[in-house]
Amino acid sequence: METESALYQLMGVRMNGVMNSITNSDGQYQEIIRKSDEYSGRLEDLELPKEVRLLIDRYVSEQNALGSRYGMLAYLLGFSDCKELLLEKCLPIGTKEKVSEA
Which of 53, 60, 67, 100 has its CA 20 to 30 A from that of 86? Predict the structure, then answer.
């Protein structure tokens, strides 16, 4: 999917702006943060060597990036599905092809 598209721009606005207030008020999200902080503290208490901590950090960072990308792709897919549904249900036959080509 084209990263300069209106859909990508909308996703950027919504994910970078609105999501902060949503996550701040979501109990499940806050519970995940609490558990994550607890595990982080336990890892710190182990006083692991620096290279082991860096390896763990890189692994966790990549897992976070993977989950984040999955969420972004799911968001885009949902909007794409909505677009297709609206085009299929709301436009007369033959008009859909013209709009999709634009």
Answer: 67
CA-to-CA dists, residue 16 to 12, 33, 72, 74, angstroms? 6, 18, 11, 16
With 70 as the cut, is the pLDDT of residue 23 above it? yes
Q: How far is CA 40 from the centre of its chain?
A: 23
Is 31 in a helix, a strand, or coil?
helix
Please state the φ and ψ torsions of residue 9, each to the nearest 5 degrees: -65, -45
- pLDDT for 98 equals 57
Compute how many other C-beta atoms are within 10 angstroms of the C-beta atom of residue 80: 12
Taking the model in full, what pTM does it have?
0.64
